[in-house]
Specification:
Layout lengths: L6 E4 L10 H20 L1 H7 L1 H8 L4 E4 L3 E4 L2 E4 L3 E7 L4 E6 L4 E5 L10 H26 L4 E3 L2
Parallel strand pairs: 5-8
Antiparallel strand pairs: 1-2, 2-3, 3-4, 5-6, 6-7
Helix pairs in contact: 1-2, 1-3
Length: 152
């Protein structure tokens, strides 16, 4: 059985950052090393405690698009359960509503960009939003042809 491949997009959601198994292992190992070194020399051990702390704080926030569902922080949307998708390019939002009443909102302004000028920042965020929202709409249509898709 092959693992599910996710498309990752940087997205500043409100939930805590994603910690991969490799990052968790690194945090645990570096914490153990800092404690052991701290038993020998307190100053160096205390300084080494910064390493796992930085590894935890530097974890990225992502939007993950899979073949059957999307994950963003604590939110999971199964495409086959989506009953309505409303895209507003002027507001910069995509509302995805599931059959059980849960709602997920994708916002244009939460996509980070490396640009420095205001016009380039707006252009890059809009392009990333369009790309991701179109992928979500495509996947919802593929999984659930009965879903109401408006504004696309």
């Amino acid at each position: 059985m092959t693992p599910t491949e996710f498309a990752l997009f940087k997205y500043q959601h409100a939930d805590r950052a994603d910690l991969s198994p490799a990052r968790l292992r690194f945090i645990y190992v570096s914490l153990a090393v800092a404690v052991v070194v701290g038993l020998v020399t307190f100053g160096v051990g205390a300084a080494l405690l910064l390493v796992p702390g930085l590894a935890y704080l530097m974890a990225g926030k992502h939007l993950k698009l899979g073949p059957r569902y999307l994950m963003c922080g604590k939110s999971i949307v199964y495409y086959a359960n989506v009953k309505r998708v409303v895209k507003s390019s002027t507001k910069g939002s995509l509302h995805v509503q599931s059959a059980n009443g849960q709602s997920f909102v994708l916002e244009r302004d939460k996509f980070p960009t490396g640009a420095r000028k205001a016009d380039k920042i707006a252009k890059n965020k809009a392009a990333k939003f369009e790309k991701v929202s179109n992928k979500i709409i495509e996947k919802v249509r593929k999984a659930n042809g009965d879903a109401d898709v408006s504004g696309a």
